[in-house]
Amino acid sequence: MVTERCQPKSRGEERSSRRQFFGLAIGVHFTLLTVRADVNPGVQPPDVSGRILPKLADIKASLPPGYRIDTGGSIEESVKANEALFAVFPMMLLAMFTLLMAQLQGFKKAALVFIISPLGLIGVVIALHIFHAPFGFVALLGLISLVGMDMRNSIILMDQIDHDLEAGSTPWDAVVEATLRRARPVVLTAASAILAMIPLTRSVFWGPMAIAIMGGLAVATFLTLLNLPALYVLWFRVREPAAGPPAGSRTADEPLVELALADSARIGVSHGGVLANGHVASRRSSE
């Protein structure tokens, strides 16, 4: 076996040499060549790898059997972290839905909040594309935290609607008034969170997470205030109450009512005159 290996100068090269010696120990002979490089300040390794890997596609396709090119470094670690995170996703979603049902005390309300929560992904994609930030493990953490923030805003609106219904408001008025009253605190809370993420945007490591939260929260807050009331009205079949006649307007039946009242008043006056004349006549006869 011919092995081309330089003197190890870093942990990565020591790790590659250990893999080579381990292969010899178990009787598998292979040659391992590790290529490492540093990136310029302000540039992230996934960006560099994303530019290099398409150029290596032809080389990978022309390799003979038994040879392959693998990507290591931060990309390999990010893939491992994502796999570990996706493994607990089902339990996390189940726990979140259970807590929503306990808070809102209803399956339909919890499902409505759960449907609204992914709207922030629209803003995440737009923000990462504008700032040329990679969607890696750190940005994924920002997306998960963004889902929780959006659910909090939805729960605030749903809770206010329930309070208005308990206070005696009609379903339509409860939805409209709750949205108008809670729009200001929801927007101010989202704005404070967005402004707090600005210093982190300059960080090479935490920058994608901050950008994902900023863009996603801005779009999710706006879409939640619009879509949640609309979906609530559709889901629970809330209808707008029929509008009554405007103030100062006259209906078609009002002239008839006034005519009847005038006739009854005239008849009452005439009867009063007869009774009065009869009473006067009785007094004169007694005299």
Low-confidence stretches: 1-25, 269-287
Q: What would you give as the CATH superfamily of the largest domain?
A: Multidrug efflux transporter AcrB transmembrane domain
- In DSSP terms, counting alpha (H) and pi (I) runs of 4 or more, how many helices? 11
**CATH top level of the largest domain?**
Mainly Alpha
Note the overall shape.
elongated
Average pLDDT: 76
The helix fraction, in percent, is: 55-70%
Please tally the β strands and state the result. Answer: 0
Order of helices and strands: HHHHHHHHHHH
Compute the gyration radius: what is it?
38 Å
CATH architecture heading of the largest domain: Up-down Bundle
> Terminal Cα separation, in Å?
153 Å
Proportion of beta-strand residues: under 5%
Strand count, sense and closure of the main sheet? none
Describe this structure in words.
This protein is 69% helix and 0% strand. It is mainly alpha-helical and 287 residues long. It folds into two domains: 54 residues, no CATH class; 148 residues, Multidrug efflux transporter AcrB transmembrane domain (Multidrug efflux transporter AcrB transmembrane fold, Up-down Bundle), CATH 1.20.1640.10. The chain is elongated, with a radius of gyration of 38 Å. The N terminus and C terminus are likely disordered.
